[in-house]
Amino acid sequence: MTEMDYSKLIEIVGKDYFIKGEEDIESFLYDQVEKTFRPKADKRSVAVKPANTEELSEIMKYANQEKIPVVVRGGATGLCGGCTPTEESIIISMERFNHIVEIDEKNMVAVLEAGVTLMQFLEELDKYKGIGFPVHPGDEGAQMGGMAATNAGGARAVRHGVMRKHILGLEVVLPTGEILELGGKLVKNNAGYNLTQLILGSEGTLCIITKVILKIFPNDSYTASIVAPFEKFEDATNAVMEILKSGVSPLAVEYMDKFLWEGSSKALGMKWQAEKGEADLLIMLSEKTEQALIDDCRVINEICEKNHSYDTLYAEKKQEQLDLLHIRGEQYNFKKDWLYDSFDMAVPISHIAEFIHDLKRLAKEYNAGSSLLAHIADGNVHNDMWLVDGKAPEYAEELKNRMYEACFSYGGTITGEHGVGKIRRTDLEMMKDPREIEIYRGIKAVFDPNGILNPGSVIA
Amino acid sequence: MKILVLIKEVPDMATVKFDSEKGVVNRAGADAEINPFDENALKAAVDLKRAYDDVEITAVTMGPPRSERSLRMAFAKGADKMVLLTDREFGGSDTYATARILSAAIRHIRDYDLIICGEKSVDGDTAQVGAEVAEFLGIPHSYYVDSIKLEDGKVRVSVENISGRRQERVMTCPCLVSVTKNVSRPELPTVRRKLLSLEQDVEILNIGDLEELTPDNTGFAGSPTKVSKVVVPGIITRDTHIFREDTDGFAAKIEEVLFEKGLV
Amino acid sequence: MANEKTYKGILVLCEYTDKGIHRVAYELLNKGREIADKLGQPLEALVVAPENVDVTELMERGADRVYHIKGECFRVSEEILYKENVVEFIKEYSPMVCLIGATEFGRSAAPRIACALGTGLTADCTDLVVNEAGEFIQVRPAFSDNILAHIKTVTFPKFCTVRYKEFAEAGKTEGRRTESKTLEPYCTEIKGCEIVDVTDIGAKDISEADVIVAAGRGVKTKEDMAIIEALADALGGTVGASRALVDAGIASSAIQVGYSGHRVKPIVYIACGISGAPQHMAGMKESDTIIAINKDPSAPIFNIADYGIVGDLYEVVPALTRRFSRKED
């Protein structure tokens, strides 16, 4: 970029909202992908923080005219390098789009600017008694625009599904600077192609989301969590499938390797209470009435016992439930120093036991360090490959390909919720029909004829 | 050995809202739960039950009828029996009136060897009711206990800190012991026992069941201390100076502070 | 209810420890003097202790009269024996207001005394005032320090425990001597409770420290506590720990700072690898200067710190130790 580009950007956003220089730009370059696995960022990039849609539109018009790449940055909580500029780019930081436009209790709809964080949104909803929003990717620093653009998921998807289930409309800025309003506060809307749904999960490659309209929900007042320890993994997954069939609808069903439960507990100064068992599940429940919650527990307990569980444990106190969540969350800190690469594959639920067996067998075959956790009722597995002597293992590529082969053999996907971004782009080509990717390119060209938006993400 | 565990139901402090402008505490929306310190008292009793034969645990609470839920949770976590003291007349009791009611009920229960209570409650914060109950009953007590053992019909306790020293004490029964969080590590109940707790009977006692109690010596009327005002102080904030990657600058600042305060 | 006129004096109840009279008594004399003057009452102190205890400092710090119940039986702290004696004393001398430090001993003994006397007790006061109507008002935090309640007692004596280090010690006038009275114990035998062993708590008394270097979950192993101890040594301070570290078996509960541990108020508090859970902050937020070392820039401890550094305690703490040990040489 040239001095002229810089001064144009400063003219649009003001000099306080323009960041340049190797040191200052550092905090605008990465997301939460492991250091060893990050795409290489181009530090010549500059960041701008537009105040509103109009400023953003001006920036896009200029960038499009000068063919300068543009990368959008939200809360940077992603796990696929999506917001890392790999070419000299204008980084659009959305943090000033932080206004909650409207909480419409009549329609049970919220209208938010894209830079509103999940934490800010949930705090706002706290003021309205009994209203909440269920999608929770784990990190509340995530911005709502980013959650929409990446179609975020998280543990609670078992009952509530992922982001795309809850978004009714968007305001977006196209690479050409045009502003589009898509959808609205409508439950039914069958007029024309559904561009809203096309943009959700497009990872900032088609346009920039500036506003989201999404559904909000009455909160459940009664919550509890159950720890169900099983000796055999098959028993655990059979129990999960039976629970899902029983009509009980848990918020989340989480599996982690026993050493992760135990190690994370210990790191937090706690003790993992399920001593027996090799396959422990954490089942999170919420209901409108206490009776419904008790009924859920009764059904789940019966199913677990039938599938040979050890004594299932019950957490009802807020603090007890939070402790379990902390242990679940701590696993990342517990293992992060060993990590080389983390995966996000998903298979149909009926195959999850076989699939996890395959993954463990493969790790053993390569004598590879690994750990595994899963949003098990979604069929979504997060397994890791560990560093060898602080370096990428020699077998990394080969092992990855064999894990993918196993995944595909069950009709699975390389990414359940984290997205493709820049680190899984070549993996995507392994999975997709070339014709499908060709259609992606066609769509991309319609939205972004000069290819300036987030180059290197999803498709080349 | 018959053990009574005194339990208080308190609001979940994480969800209680404090309005510093209006000076009010808003408990609405806060979940009621067993006082966290009482969880340690209950678990201390359960640990004794696991370690010795013939230990029976009765959980006792005073509160509105809904406190029955907390008693049932205590059952799920290992209590064998539950007693609820509830009466409109009990409302507004300070620690002295509360201790009078609890001790009246304990005399009514009659058969007990050891009373265990938690260090303090997270809402009242007084840590007084235990010793006051012991005084009403005329039995010995120890506070700040972090270990309990049973020895020849007596109770051996370790007091963490009293006047700067640790003490080992042997107490004759009946006696009262108030425990710190270090005495035990609370555990989750099993789902099975939680479900079982819902089918149990809770003994309910009210003012008419306890001879020594009258509307004049319980509740607000029977309380010698009166709250005249409640103030919610604003949050203390400090002018924070944060250093990043400048250990030398940080160390220099600390040195300056220590020097100013006359510590070096 | 008794007539107010028959009750006289502000009485400070002193705690005897093996270091002599607990210093909280001198703080109570300071606040007690203010109350005594406003109510037009004398300020008195009661010591229940063995013979060899020097009570003159109580006079030098403002007590108008000192009572000393002398007995070898008081050498080891025990609340019930203390109660038996104090209750009889109070019945005989009828003080209007009784103050005792909210130490472990005070909190355990005071409710028994108050209950035996049938009077109200206010716990853990942080202020005592006489209002415009001339009433004695006790101010105390409740709801885990989130509110301050103003409390009146309608019985006599008006009795409260007062937080240690809440008030400055009363000034000392060397050589000031006032009336003192020695009393025989009313009771010498502990009933129902035998003290079989008394030992050190195994740590410096953290509530007395001027400098505390406290460790949190950022410290990974027991061995690593050495780097915290080294800094504490270099600064002439005491080591503290968060609840998480005690739970993990890395630190002793004797040094635990927080709502369920010790409430401390040192001149300088250095939090190393402590994120700042509300329960921890309740125990140290009133320290004069708070310094925080934490890897996580969003750790809540930074919100109440005066100075902080975003960094790894394993690098920062030894660097500080090196700097301050050098100075000591």
Q: How are the SSEs ordered, and which strands pair?
A:
The complex is a heterotrimer of chains A (460), B (264) and C (329).
Chain A: H1 3-13, E1 18-19, H2 22-25, E2 46-48, H3 53-66, E3 70-73, E4 90-93, E5 100-104, E6 109-113, H4 118-126, E7 131-132, H5 144-149, H6 157-160, E8 167-173, E9 179-183, H7 195-199, E10 208-215, E11 217-218, E12 222-230, H8 233-246, E13 252-257, H9 258-267, E14 279-287, H10 290-306, E15 313-315, H11 318-335, E16 339-342, H12 352-365, E17 372-375, E18 380-386, H13 396-409, H14 425-431, H15 434-447
Parallel strand pairs in A: 2-4, 3-4
Antiparallel strand pairs in A: 1-2, 5-6, 6-10, 7-11, 8-9, 8-10, 12-14, 12-15, 13-14, 13-17, 16-18, 17-18
Helix pairs in contact in A: 1-3, 8-10, 9-11, 12-13
Chain B: E1 2-7, E2 9-11, E3 17-19, E4 24-26, E5 32-34, H1 36-51, E6 56-62, H2 68-76, E7 81-85, H3 95-109, E8 114-118, H4 129-137, E9 141-151, E10 154-162, E11 165-171, E12 175-179, H5 191-197, E13 203-205, E14 225-231, E15 241-244, H6 247-260
Parallel strand pairs in B: 1-6, 1-8, 6-7, 7-13, 8-12, 9-12
Antiparallel strand pairs in B: 2-5, 3-4, 9-10, 10-11
Helix pairs in contact in B: 2-5, 3-4
Chain C: E1 10-13, E2 16-17, E3 20-21, H1 24-39, E4 43-49, H2 56-60, E5 65-70, H3 79-93, E6 97-101, H4 104-117, E7 121-125, E8 127-130, E9 136-142, E10 147-153, E11 158-162, E12 179-183, E13 193-200, E14 211-215, H5 225-234, E15 238-241, H6 243-247, E16 268-272, H7 278-281, E17 289-294, E18 307-310, H8 313-328
Parallel strand pairs in C: 1-4, 1-6, 4-5, 5-12, 6-11, 7-11, 14-15, 14-16, 16-17, 17-18
Antiparallel strand pairs in C: 2-3, 8-9, 9-10
Helix pairs in contact in C: 3-4, 5-8
